[in-house]
Amino acid sequence: MLRLWRWYQNCLAIHPVKTQVISSGLIWGFGDIAAQTITHSTAKKHRHLQEEDKELKINWKRVATTSLFGFGFVGPVGHYCGCRYEGLDRYIRLRLCLQPNSFRFVATKVAIDGFIFGPLDLLVFFTYMGFSAGKSFPQVKENVKRDFVPALILEGGVWPIVQVANFRYIPVRYQLLYVNVFCLLDSCFLSWIEQQEDAPWKQWLNSLLPSKEKRGQGG
């Protein structure tokens, strides 16, 4: 394990972009396999499968599609996120004059990261998965509306905690690596969210937001 870690660090130092791209693609591919396994197990437990579908069959086309998201978006963005973390760190220290590792410093960094990059990542993922499945623009739009809010609410309860520990205790040069460890769980989670389609719990979360119809009736 130590040799593997050193090899990864060496690759990251020599070929940072290529290493981030390849590792991100693999991480998101494994995450989708895990999501398919969880979805199948849940359906089997609740007897939602036909007899011929009880055996798990991995959709490798979907795995490849999800991996491409890691290769094409998460990897390149992830590499430049390293620069982003350092740049954000400098901006908060020098422009906002906040003391590193102070409560206000960490809270500001978490807020900026969460409000800007969290929603953007979700929007790109669900849009990409829709178009890659051959859906039309109206269908993709509806799917994004269906999946975006539940994912944002659920991730909103986890990622801020992850990032508080990241920005408070991890040296800035290692913060991206720390985040990538949690990307395996995140890729599994987002793939699972997307596969849930019109699950009742999604409808309930979306119902918490005021709709146009409700605003019209109220106004």
Automatic annotation (TrEMBL):
Mainly localized where?
membrane
User: Hey, which family's this protein in?
Assistant: Belongs to the peroxisomal membrane protein PXMP2/4 family.
Subcellular location(s) per record? Membrane
**Protein name in the entry:** Protein Mpv17 isoform X3
| UniProt xrefs under PANTHER family | PEROXISOMAL MEMBRANE PROTEIN 2, PXMP2 MPV17 (PTHR11266), PROTEIN MPV17 (PTHR11266:SF17)
Tell me the superkingdom of the source.
Eukaryota
Q: Where are the transmembrane segments?
A: 110-128, 148-169
Per the record, its GO cellular-component terms are: cytoplasm; membrane
Q: Which InterPro entries match?
A: Mpv17_PMP22 (IPR007248)
Keywords, alphabetical: Membrane, Transmembrane, Transmembrane helix
Regarding the membrane, this protein is recorded as: Multi-pass membrane protein
